[in-house]
Amino acid sequence: MLGQYYLRIMKFLLGKKLGMSQQYAEDGAVVPVTLIGIDDNIITQVKANEKEGYTAVQVGTGVRRKISKPLAGHLKDLPNLRFIKEFKVKDGEYKRGDKIDLSIFSIGDKVKVTGIMKGKGFAGAVKRHGFKGMPASHGHKSVRRHVGSIGQRFPQHTLKGMRMAGRMGGVQITTRGLKVVGVDKDNGTLVLKGAVPGNIGGFIKIESIN
Predict the structure, then answer these.
(1) pTM of the entire structure?
(2) CB neighbours of residue 41 within 10 Å
(3) Lower Cβ count inside 10 Å, N or C end of the chain?
(4) pLDDT in tens, 43-76
C-alpha cells in the first residue's frame, strides 16, 4: 500500500526555507504562509526497474565548494551539488542533467514537505513529551516536572522506548496536506500555506499529493 502511494507522486522539487510571512485571502482573512526558494533542480541519476529494482529520480540542488571523490565521480559533468535526494516515480521522460523548475507546480496543489526539525537541545519530559508533571501539594517538593516511575520489578530494567528526558528535535519529519498558494517564477519562490519543518536556510523536499 505504501509503495502504491509513492508511485502516485509525480511532482517534486528541492528547495530552501526562506522564512514565514502572511498574506490576505479574498475574504480578508490573514493566511500564514512559508516562502521557499527554488534554485535549479538538476537530475543526477535515473533509476530503472530493470537495474535497481524500482523506478526513481535522484535530484540535486545548491552548490558547495568541496565534495568527496566518490560524490565527484557520481556528479561528473554536473555542478558540485549540495543537497541530493531521491523521489520514486511511476513513469515520465527523465534524463540525467535535465533541470526541473517551478512550472511543474500550480496554485491549489496539495503537497507534503520533509525537512529536519529544529534542534531544541536537551529537554525534560514535560516539554519533550507533554507530561503533566507532579502535583504541587500533599508532600511533593521540587518534583513538579519530574518523570516519575520508569520501571518495575520485572524485567528489572528500563524498557526500550520509555519516554524520558533527552535531546529534542533535530530529526526528520514530514508535514502533509500543505496547499500551494503562490508560484513566483521570476524570483524562484514557492509559497505554501502554513508552516514547514526546519530552520531558515534549511533544505527541504516537496512532493505532490494526489
Answers:
(1) 0.82
(2) 24
(3) N
(4) 999 998 888 888 999 999 999 989 999 999 999 9
Q: Enumerate helices (H) and strands (E) in the chain, giving the number of each.
A: 3, 12
Cell of 6: 509513492
Share in percent of the chain as helix, strand, coil (round to 5) = 10, 40, 50
| Cα 82 to Cα 57: distance, rounded to the nearest angstrom | 17
Task: Give alpha helix (H) positions in the chain.
Answer: 2-7, 69-74, 125-129
Q: How many CB atoms lie within 10 A of CB 89?
A: 20
H/E stretch holding 189 reads strand 189-193
| Number of C-beta neighbours around residue 202 at 10 A | 16
Q: Give per-residue pLDDT as tens, 182-191.
A: 999 999 999 9
Do residues 42 and 27 make contact, with C-beta atoms less than 8 angstroms apart?
no
CA distance 203 to 197: 10
What pLDDT was estimated at residue 121?
96
The number of angstroms, rounded, from the C-alpha of 65 to the middle of its chain's C-alpha atoms is 24
Question: Among all chains, which residue has been given the C-alpha cell 522539487?
Answer: 13
